[in-house]
Write a structure and sequence with these properties.
21% helix, 3 helices, binds magnesium ion, alpha/beta, globular, 175 residues, binds inosinic acid, six-stranded mixed beta sheet
């Protein structure tokens, strides 16, 4: 894979924006009358979180969890490690956990485990992308932006060797 060639667009910025509108409506509807704490998994979920957050009409607080499993390759190198923890008290809160992509499912499993240990009222999960073919556990997200095939993707927050997060679209790298 190359860092110099431009990624090939597979989801346009317009398509992403349209999907996020629908997704946010579902979330707003589901949590009507409640307040939530949105927990974003850094770094990949940063763009998705920023866009989703601005479409939420329910009262929302934000916190971030940093979990990493990838070094600079395109496959997980180790079990996910929590390298940055939450600042909030989770007791009695409704948690919406947000990540960029559900791949093997290890990151989300780790995050849910961590959050559960702090006794929130509820935990739901929302991912921008779901690569179901790669799953090594039974993790299912409550809300999914797009289901995608087993290809390494970049843009809209997702990186390859730290690059391409800034792209407004989702792309795949030319092989
Ligand atoms: P997991 O395999 O479900 O634990 O996903 C681990 C993390 O790997 C995700 O949160 C992403 O940050 C990253 N990841 C997985 N697949 C891709 C991809 O296709 N492109 C970029 N990052 C990815
Ligand atoms: Mg990530």
């Amino acid at each position: 894979m190359s860092l110099t060639n431009q990624p090939i667009e597979i989801l346009s910025a317009e398509r992403i924006a349209k999907r996020l509108k629908d997704l946010s409506q579902e979330i707003n509807h589901f949590y009507e009358g409640k307040e939530i704490l949105l927990v974003s998994i850094l770094d990949g979920a940063i763009i998705f979180t920023a866009d989703l957050l601005r479409l939420l009409t329910i009262p929302t607080q934000l916190d971030c969890l940093r979990i990493s499993s990838y070094g600079s390759s395109t496959s997980p190198e180790s079990a996910p490690q929590i390298t940055g923890s939450l600042k909030s008290d989770l007791q009695g809160k409704h948690i919406l956990l947000v990540d960029d992509i559900l791949d093997t499912g290890n990151t989300m499993e780790r995050a849910v485990h961590e959050i559960s240990s702090h006794n929130p009222d509820s935990i739901k999960t929302c991912v921008f992308l779901d690569k179901a073919e790669r799953r090594t556990n039974h993790f299912l997200a409550d809300w999914v932006g797009f289901a995608i095939p087993n290809e390494f993707v970049v843009g809209y927050g997702l990186d390859y060797k730290g690059r391409f997060r800034e792209l407004p679209y989702l792309g795949k790298l030319p092989s």
